[in-house]
Amino acid sequence: MDKTQIIKSVKKAREGSPKRNFLQRFDFIANLQDIDIKKPDEKIDLFVTLPHGTGKDIKICAFVDDALISEAKKEFYKAIHKDEFGALSRNKPEMRRLAKECDFFVAQANLMPDIASNFGKILGPKGKMPNPKAGCIIPPKAQLKPLKERLKKLVRLQTKNEPIVKCLVGSENMDDAAIVDNILAVHTALVHALPKGEANIKSMFLKLTMGKPATIGAKKGGEEK
C-alpha cells in the first residue's frame, strides 16, 4: 500500500470532521471479501503493535495476589486482589462498569480458574477476558511497567459477526506521519493473517470519531470513491 494514498486519506479524514470539544480518534476499517468467518482458520483475531502508539491513555485492570498487588496498584488503573474476587463478582454493576471502562485486563496465570468462574460471564461476551495473545496472562514475578508500556501500543483486529475489521490507529493530535506508519503496521499484519492476503480486502477506510469516512487507496482502474 502506497504511503501517498494513506496521507491523502488522513488529510481527507481531518477535513471531513469538524472540531469537537474532545479528542477524536482515527479508526481504520477494512471490509473483507471471499472469506468465511464461520471457519476458525479464516476468522481474524490478532493484536498489532502500533509504532507510535494510540495517542490515548489506556486503562488496565489487574487480577493479582500478594506477589504483585503493590506493583499493580502503582502501575495500573485498578488492581484487584484475589481476596476481593468474591465480593466483586456479586457486585454486578461495578463489574460491568470496570468492563466498559478498562481497555485491558491482566491476570496472574495461577489465578485464571478463579477469574474465569467469577468474572467470565461479564468479561467474556465483551472480549475483555485476560488474553494470552496480548501477553495479559502473566507469572507472579512479572515486570508490570514494561507490560503497561507495551499494552499502550497494542490494538486488536477481530472479525465478529461480519467480514469487517476495525481498530484504533491514532488520535487527532498526532502527526500525519505517525498515523500513516500506524496504518501501514495494521495493514501489513492484516494482509499476513488473511488466507489470500491483499485479495481478501475489498475496501479500506479511515475516519475520525465524528467525521466522514475517507477511502484509503482506489480500486484498480478506477477513481477513489
What does this structure look like?
There is one protein chain. The protein is an alpha/beta fold and 225 residues long. It has 2 domains: 3-55 and 153-215, 2-Layer Sandwich (Ribulose 1,5 Bisphosphate Carboxylase/Oxygenase), CATH 3.30.190.20; 60-151, Rossmann fold. 33% of the residues lie in helices and 23% in strands. The chain has 7 helices and 10 strands. It has a 4-stranded antiparallel β-sheet. A 4-stranded parallel β-sheet has the order 4-3-5-6, with helices on one face. Helix 1 (3-15) crosses helix 7 (176-193). The longest helix has 18 residues, at 176-193. The protein is globular, with a radius of gyration of 19 Å. The protein starts with a helix and ends in a 10-residue tail after the last strand. The relative contact order is 0.28.
Q: Can you tag this structure with a few keywords?
A:
2 domains, alpha/beta, 4-stranded parallel β-sheet, Rossmann fold, single chain, 225 residues, 23% strand, disordered C terminus
